[in-house]
Design brief:
With 308 residues, the protein is of the alpha+beta class. Helix content is 33%, strand content 31%. The chain has three domains: 50 residues; 106 residues, Ribosomal protein S6/Translation elongation factor EF1B (Alpha-Beta Plaits, 2-Layer Sandwich), CATH 3.30.70; 87 residues, no CATH class. It is flat and about 100 Å long.
Length: 308
């Protein structure tokens, strides 16, 4: 066998081995690809089926944002028992409230001891001070509404009888509060509770101010027409013509302001005007009739007493 023939046989044999190996490799790759493709399709189908059952899975970020928002609202609308409480923490908490919301409220703070209510411990504090009624209302509202479980057990509010008129008008009061601060080792650490900015309507009147009083002169009210010093000259369905002291003639419409009240109604058929007037803390409806050719019709006829 010549050298050339032997080399040709060797090369041919190697070529056959390479072709067989390539075929086997390709076959194995195709098999592995087929297995991978099948597994991928199975997983993809499971995911697709899962999304059909739970369509919100595609909104993961939105759902997490809603979760965080609900958690924030829960913290704002729920009272929590503190993990620990002492006089220093309670005093700092109450001072924080006054600094934020009612800076004109001054108070003395005393620790009265510890107690237990249905297995939950609490510290009792007494708070005595003075302020105006609106600041006191704000202080109580914040204690009752903020997250820490501080409960006002009782309170006393009074106005000193020897206050000057200016202080009485400002609604200055003296108050005493008995306060329970609950705590438990399984409670929430104070520093983890958010301090909330609460929106609310403050008290609109002074409960110590008498509601019924003697008529008082009010310079601002006297800038308006005094119905006790006018006479009605005529009517339309929407206006009345009046003559004031000194001969000044003017017109009033329903809803127009007069001294201590307003024009409530015009009765065209019976020719009278109905005014709502409050001079003594009680609203009175007063009728004024038209004056014709010097004949005096009944005036200022009072009906229907109404508390303001």
């Amino acid at each position: 066998m010549t050298y050339a023939i032997r080399n040709s046989i060797i090369i041919g044999t190697l070529l056959i081995i390479v072709l067989v190996a390539t075929f086997i490799g390709k076959s194995r790759s195709k098999k592995e690809l087929s297995i991978f493709t099948r597994e991928f399709e199975q997983v993809d189908k499971k995911l697709s089926d899962l999304k059909k059952v739970n369509p919100d899975l595609e909104k993961e970020k939105e759902i997490m944002a809603q979760h965080d928002e609900l958690q924030r609202k829960a913290l704002q609308k729920t009272k929590f028992i503190l993990q620990n409480d002492d006089a220093s923490l309670a005093y700092d908490y109450l001072t924080d409230i006054t600094n934020r919301y009612c800076s004109k409220l001054n108070f003395d703070f005393n620790y009265n001891g510890e107690g237990e209510n249905q297995g939950v411990r609490y510290n009792e504090y007494s708070i005595n001070g003075n302020t105006d009624i609106k600041n006191f209302f704000t202080f109580v509202y914040q204690i009752e509404t903020q997250s820490p479980l501080f409960i006002i057990q009782s309170f006393e509010v009074r106005q000193e009888t020897d206050l000057d008129e200016e202080s009485k008008n400002k609604s200055e009061i003296i108050f005493n509060l008995s306060l329970y601060a609950y705590f438990d080792q399984n409670g929430v650490p104070y520093e983890e509770l958010p301090f909330m900015n609460l929106k609310y309507k403050n008290i609109t009147s002074n409960p110590f101010k008498p509601r019924i009083h003697d008529p008082k002169k009010d310079d601002e009210e006297l800038l308006y027409v005094d119905i006790e010093k006018i006479k009605i000259l005529g009517f339309t369905k929407n206006n009345i013509m009046i003559e004031e002291t000194g001969g000044k003639v003017s017109f009033l419409s329903v809803g127009d302001k007069v001294a201590y009240g307003y024009l409530q109604k015009i009765n065209w058929e019976e020719q009278f005007a109905l005014f709502n007037i409050n001079r003594i803390g009680i609203a009175l409806e007063e009728k004024l009739y038209v004056n014709v050719d010097g004949v005096e019709f009944p005036t200022n006829k009072k009906i229907n007493w109404k508390r303001k």
